[in-house]
Amino acid sequence: MTKKDSQSHQWVDEFPGAVTVCDMDGKVLEMNNRSAETFAKYGGAELIGKNLRDCHPPVARAKLDGLLASGEVNAYTVEKNGIRKLIYQAPWYKDGERMGMVEISLEIPGEMNHFKRG
Predict the structure, then answer these.
(1) For 74, phi and psi rounded to 5 degrees?
(2) Which of 72, 88, 95, 100 counts the highest number of beta carbons within 10 A?
(3) Alpha carbon 69 to its chain's center
(4) pLDDT above 80 for 92
């Protein structure tokens, strides 16, 4: 691996949103720092190598299974303890083959601008 390749994903470590990557079986492959902090009570970075299904109640586990099977995108907002977040779950690919799913969780303000363009 070239030096450039080894540093190509370093930007994500300190990205202010939680980024979690799993394979097609739901096994956690990568977590950035914010993801590890977000899921600290479940083990944080120790979740790497473990299955996402074990971290979810039955309804959420069924949704996860459906997303992994279908390759669909799931996007929604949630509010917990006064903090609003945008959750975006989408498949990731390698050489055109679907390899798993990425979840990005971003804190969003209570009020935010919305622009219609074009």
Answers:
(1) -125, 120
(2) 100
(3) 17
(4) yes
Burial (0-12, 13-18, 19+ Cβ within 10 Å), 109? exposed
> What value does the mean pLDDT take over residues 88-113?
95
Question: What's the CA gap between 94 and 41, in Å, rounded?
Answer: 31
Q: What are phi and psi of 102, to 5 degrees?
A: -115, 135
Interval 44-53: pLDDT, tens: 999 999 999 9
Domains of the chain: 15-108 (3.30.450.20)
Tokens of 117: 């363009």
Distance between CA atoms of residues 65 and 72, nearest Å: 11
d(CA 77, CA 117): 22
